[in-house]
Amino acid sequence: MPRIAQMVTWLVGRRIRTRRPAAQAGAHPRARQRVLALAAAVVLILAGCGGGATGGGGEGTSAPPAQGGAGGPVTITIGINADPPNLDPAMSSALVDRYVQNSIFDKLYDLDENLQVVPELAESLPEVSEDGTVYTIKLRQGITFHDGTPFNADAVVFNLQRYLNPDSARYSELSAVDRVEKVDDYTVRIVLKQPYSPLLYTLTDRAGMMGSPTAIQEAGDQFGQNPVGTGPFKFENRIKGDQIVLVKNPDYWREGLPKADRIVWKVVTDDNIKVVNLKAGQLDIIDTVPAQSIADLRSVPNLKVEIGPGLGFQGIYLNTEKEPFNNPYLRRAVDLAIDRSTLVQVVFQETAEPGYGPFPPSSPAAAASGEPPQRDLDQVKALLAQGGHPEGFQFTLKTATGPVTQQVAQVIKDMLADAGIQMEIQQVEFGSLLDDTDNGNFQAAALGWSGRPDPDGNIYPWLYTGGSQNDSRYSNPGVDRLLDEARQVLDMNQRVELYRQVMEQVHQDAPYIYLYYPKNVKAYSAQIQGFVNYPDGIIRTENLTKVR
Question: At what angle do helices 32-49 and 271-279 cross, to 10 degrees?
């Protein structure tokens, strides 16, 4: 029996608990009941000792304070699957960063639950010149940052110019911007080098987050250690690897918001522990749910589970500047040796879909991704021969710590072994994995993307030469030309055709192995009110409260 068939039979027979992983997430054990029993015991012991939920570090730290009586302070504790690496919007590159940042920083614009752009710190949608190169934005008045610094046009110009620095992670998102100008105290003008269709959507994310110029100038590159925005919650403290505590902004400009007094972002890297803590009431919301825990959670009367469409993708970077993946035939061989449908069926069930490109089914450019290829070992072996390795080769895959990421890697390892490709698995802490990919210190690395509503955000930074997420070090002048052209086209049908041409070339070059599209799966206590499962995966906290 081929090794992949053995793997599938073993996994299904063991009824392993799995979940939809974010790029940085971990997951589950081999023996379901043994781990859940142990986790339950840990929760009971900690509860008896006055401790809180445990997870990726911070052992022995205290739990968030219990809720007060009627009318008392409301604390909402949210379990997240990794410690946010950087809370500075200029340098951030992780989804878990965005969870916390969206509570601290307001943006010029935001998305509603239907992914439509709505004004936030901007007073209205911008006025756009006929040629599409000048955006004039009116700002809300009377808003201050958490440190008392006024929010005005000077603050917006300061932040956008900071993001335009080539060292910023936002640089490629705003590379079409020529300059940002102050028109008056509450009006700014963004002048583009050429039309840039994704601009508004870009300003609904980190490139639109406004930080206090005073705090940024004082803290410099340490701003992420004590971030200051205008958002509904203020940063209070952080225990690295354990939790981040935010407190209510009493001067928030939206009347009646926020509704809660404290938000605690609790780092729990093991999803099974996270589920147990949710059931025990130690967590109010969890950001990811193991696939085979869904039925169990749905059976609990005081819990809710929501599954919605996602915007992102998951896959594997191949370092095109290092052996063995400076050889395009070997990259393509790995790509075609993976059975994506089997991977999703075994590991994720209803919480993900097989993928073969940067655009999930929810994207307006979904058709450009293409259909996953049929696994063909004869073709794989032919590619190995063309690449000078007819008997196969070996490489190391770096992946984040956690049982689910380990399971995904193990399934892929067995698939590749059928073709004579030997893959070693090396698990590293999520922040270290980001550093390694940024620095090129890897052969292959399992990392994905939480996704953006405009297709450009899912493809340009990843495949454009020098793009902020192009850790594969991929460079193709033809791809660059098509991606630049797509940015200047306003008609989505024309953009989709350009992206289709890009992906034809990218599938041949295979710098990144697209594997699957995670869905948004959130579980939470029925006591929580105001929760909306947005397609971008971000948990909005300003409307959250708890029924006592």
Answer: 50
Q: What is the CATH number of the domain that holds 56?
A: 3.40.190.10
Output b/e per residue, 131-151; b: 16+ Cβ within 10 A. Answer: eebbbebbbbeebbbbeebeb
Residue 283 maps to a domain: yes
**Smallest Cα–Cα separation from 225: which of 326, 104, 63?**
104
Asked whether residue 90 is domain-assigned, the answer is: no
Q: What is the 3-state secondary structure (H, E, C) of 417-470?
A: HCCCCEEEEEEECHHHHHHHHHHCCCCEEECCECECCCCHHHHHHHHCCCCCCC
Q: Look up residue 311 and give its two tokens.
A: 């915007």
User: 46 pLDDT exceeds 90?
Assistant: no
Q: What total of structural domains would you count in the chain? A: 3
Judge whether 198 lies within some domain: yes
The one-letter amino acid at 331: R
Among all chains, which residue has been given the structure tokens 């090129």?
440
In a shared domain, residues 527 and 494: no
Per residue, what are the HEC states of 105-122?
A: CCECEEECCCCCEEECCE
Q: Identify whether residues 282 and 425 lie together within a single domain.
A: no
* Residue 385 phi, psi dihedral angles, 5° rounding: -65, -45
485 with 541, same domain: the answer is no
Q: Cα(505)–Cα(477) distance, rounded to whole angstroms? A: 11
Facing residues of 190 across strands?
135, 180
Tens of pLDDT, residue by residue over 91-106, are 998 989 999 999 999 9
Burial of 490 (0-12, 13-18, 19+ CB in 10 A): exposed
- Whether the pLDDT of residue 87 is over 90: the answer is yes
DSSP string, 333-383: HHHHT--HHHHHHHHTGGGEEE-SSS--TTSTTGGGT-PPPPP-HHHHHHH
Q: Is residue 124 part of a domain?
A: yes
Q: Which residues fall within 8 angstroms of residue 217, CB to CB, at 6 or more apart? A: none
pLDDT in tens, 267-312: 998 889 999 999 999 999 999 998 889 999 999 999 999 999 999 9
Q: DSSP letter at 207?
A: G
Same domain, residue pair 513 and 539 = no
The type of residue at 437 is: T
**35 has a pLDDT exceeding 70:** no
pLDDT(515) > 80: yes
Residue type, 434: L
Residues in a beta bridge with 62: 51
**Of 223, 250, 273, the domain-final residue:** 223
Which residue segment(s) compose the domain that 71 sits in?
Answer: 31-84+231-307+522-546
CATH number, domain of 202, equals 3.90.76.10
Q: pTM for this structure?
A: 0.76
Whether residue 454 sits in one domain with residue 320: yes
